Amino acid sequence: MHQLVLIDEGKPLRLYRSSFEMNRACVGRGRETFIRWYREHARTILENRINRYKDRFAVQPTDLKVLDLKYRWGSCSQDGTLNFHWKTILAPMTVVDYIVVHEMAHLIEHNHTPEFWDLVGTVLSDYEKRKEWLERNGKYLDI
Fold first, then answer.
1. Which residues belong to any copy of the YgjP-like metallopeptidase domain (predicted)?
2. CA distances for 19 relative to 71, 82, 87, 131, angstroms
């Protein structure tokens, strides 16, 4: 958990050392300011995680989008675009990796067939533990 410090000038929001610094002018739009910050930073983190696993898959995503997916953590479009909820990066990195691998597996197998889960399992042998964590704790990942 990070402390929030209000500042009189500067960027709307930044993470500095172990504290978030928010410009006082943005306090009335605090949640929106945080969401914008998380969306910007989620893209970089998710690109890095995709790059970590891309060699394990025969195909690569065509694009990456960070959106508000309501009650979904991710989705894979038919054109190969991977979509992730901005809240994904609030999860532990092991769970972020599960979400990334899950969506990358959809580039090969579109449905949750036994082959799909076998593919996920070849990349993350403990995916069931990560999936269970997300099912149990995902509802608490919010700002």
1. 31-137
2. 28, 31, 19, 30
Residue reference for tokens 């042998």: 125
Locus of tokens 């610094």: 21
Domains present along the chain, CATH in parentheses: 38-140 (3.30.2010.10)
The predicted pLDDT at position 16 comes to: 87
Do residues 139 and 111 make contact, with C-beta atoms less than 8 angstroms apart? no
Percent above pLDDT 90 for the chain: 83
Which phi and psi angles does 141 have, rounded to 5°? -85, 95
- Rounded to an integer, what is the distance from CA 108 to the centroid of its chain? 20
**Strand 13-16 with 63-67, pairing:** unpaired
Average pLDDT of span 55-64: 92
